[in-house]
Amino acid sequence: MAQAPSEEIRLNQVGFYPAAPKVAVVVGELKETVFHVKTADGKKTVFSGKLAPMKPAEFSKKPTRVADFSSLRQTGTFVLEIPGKGTSYTFEVKPKVHEAVAAASIKGFYYQRTFSELPQQYAGQWPRPAGHPDTQVLIHPSAASPQRPAGSVISSPRGWYDAGDYNKYIVNSGITMGTLLSGYEDFPEYFQKQSLNIPESGNQVPDLLDEVLWNLRWMLTMQDPQDGGVYHKLTNPAFDGIIMPHQAQNPRYVVQKGTAASLDFAAVMAQASRVYGKFPKAFPGLADSCLTAATKAFAWAQQNPKVEYNQEAINKEFQPQISTGAYGDKDFQDEFIWAAAELYLTTKQDRYYTAVNLFPDDKMPLPSWGQVRLLGYYSLARFSKELTPVAKKDLPLLQKRLVAFADELMAGAHDRAYRTVMGKTERDYNWGSSSNAANQGIALLQAFRITSDRKYLHAALSNLDYLLGRNATGFSFVTGYGQKSTRHPHHRPSMADGIAEPVPGLLAGGPNGQANRQDKCPTYTATSPDEMYTDDDCSYASNEIAINWNAPLVYLANGLEALLQK
Ligand code: 9MR
Asked: How far, in Å, CA of 209 to CA of 276, rounded?
């Protein structure tokens, strides 16, 4: 009988492009220094090489060695064999090797749809009845206005569930949508050809944009038509239990409007206006509606530049108390930058470019839900050829900073134990660390777009390898992809549906140095931040899924497919 694969051999369990780097890492003491790549049946050796000398992993200090088989060009299904350790999980070498996981990462959003039933025709093994129609949503007292007093009702249907919970948050939708729309703007021909088997497939519009529209239509309903401000979130007072969407019947509220929500909304609507404006027949009037919504939201934020969503303060004043995700940002400088950049690019009006200081300092902060400055920079760089003179003069500086940021991310990656860009410092391993790996990958692809230097492509690929298994946990963090992938995400439908396999295409949060203290799951065994992950559904701090983590995976996996293929 074949031996079980060795958990100590860590590699991208999906596979490798014939013409791109191929690396595996072996953890633990080892005398032997050779490795072999063999056909999956173990019968034929297609490549042999020497392991790099042993070195301690940065955080756990465990000994590691690297197997580099980049020069293997043969296609097929293989295992890596290391005498004294055993064999790895199987992987493929072939063109378009990430095509399926890339598509699945978008399909993951379909599974997050509120309002709609998911029939078996599209949902395969995971059909479910419609949940959370949100056609009768209450105005929370914190959101009351003369036209919409507390307790009055609005309709705010569609959208995606944020994560493992069933609420809908504008701030987190903001970065998610911006990332997905940017993926489309950067790789339009690639997405035009992709089919995801969703209800809208075949309507001449890329499936990615059909899926994104599901959430866009919800977002539009979150704007107060009276003044243009945007409600921070649509939520239950408290998280639902571990039940299926249709079983969750608690009342839902929209809460206080805020500056972050309004600016994120403005940025998304401005970008959406540009993108959907390319499909006027399919979506008549949509681009105009989005742009109007964007300008109104931006104007509201200019008049209300410091309205924080402070859940504690709100709970002191109003009932019912709200205890769901806060996404409480206090600093709006980056949201102003992002919104102004998108409005400028869509309208070509210099007044948006000059409305805020786009370069207040030389910082290049990695994107996350509370930090969206670079989304604006990426968009400005994307349209480098279409800038008006006022923006054109900043372009060299902007491009220089984007490339320098990528260089900084890459520095030392080749010498790290796992040879990934991810893991430079302990800070990479926070709540939702997988999104750091993916967002670093996006930053590297921006540098590739500017320089055409393939070293950035390969560096970005190292982080996709990280997400699919070449990491200190040995897990592929994408459900359904990889023999040892996340099986028990903190995701209500996956927990409550009675189906063994988790809903596929979802990215787990990943190792989080604080996770054991935050969710107090009993199953952690790790002692270092890069290993602080448990594939247990109690682990909302390391094993939840979230739309703002899946979105950069969509960009990275699909972008690499578009750019590398071979
Ligand atoms: O992604 C969020 C992370 O940065 C925060 O540290 C964490 C705790 O506040 O919340 C995360 O977001 C969660 C949100 O509040 C509610 N839905 C699930 C999100 C993912 O865990």
From this structure: 8
Structure tokens at 217: 């239509």
Question: How would you classify the pairing of strands 9-10 and 15-16?
Answer: unpaired
- Of the candidates 63, 71, 59, 34, the one whose C-alpha atom is nearest the C-alpha of residue 49 is 34
Cα(328) to centroid(ligand 1), Å: 10
Distance between the two ends of the chain, CA-based, in angstroms? 35
CA distances from 384 to 273, 279, 418, 449 (A): 19, 23, 35, 11
CA of 541 to the centre of ligand 1 (A): 8
Contact 174, 267 (CB under 8 A): yes
What phi and psi, each to the nearest 5 degrees, are found at residue 333? -55, -45
For ligand 1, atom 8, name the residue with the nearest CA. Answer: 325
CATH architecture of 100-393: Alpha/alpha barrel (1.50)
335 is catalytic: no
Distance 531 CA to ligand 1 centre (A): 20
Superfamily classification of domain 9-93: Immunoglobulins (2.60.40.10)
Q: Which atom of ligand 1 is nearest to the CA of 549?
A: 1
8 flagged as catalytic: no
Domain ranges of the chain: 9-93, 100-393
Task: Answer yes or no: are the C-beta atoms of 48 and 485 closer than 8 Å.
Answer: no
DSSP-derived secondary structure for 154-204: E-----B--BSSS-EEHHHHHHHHHHHHHHHHHSHHHHHT-----TTTTSS
Please give the number of the atom of ligand 1 that sits closest to the Cα of 164: 18
pTM greater than 0.90 (yes/no): yes
Mean pLDDT over the full length of the chain: 98
ipTM: 0.99
User: Tens digits of per-residue pLDDT, 52-99?
Assistant: 999 999 999 999 999 999 999 999 999 999 999 999 999 999 999 999
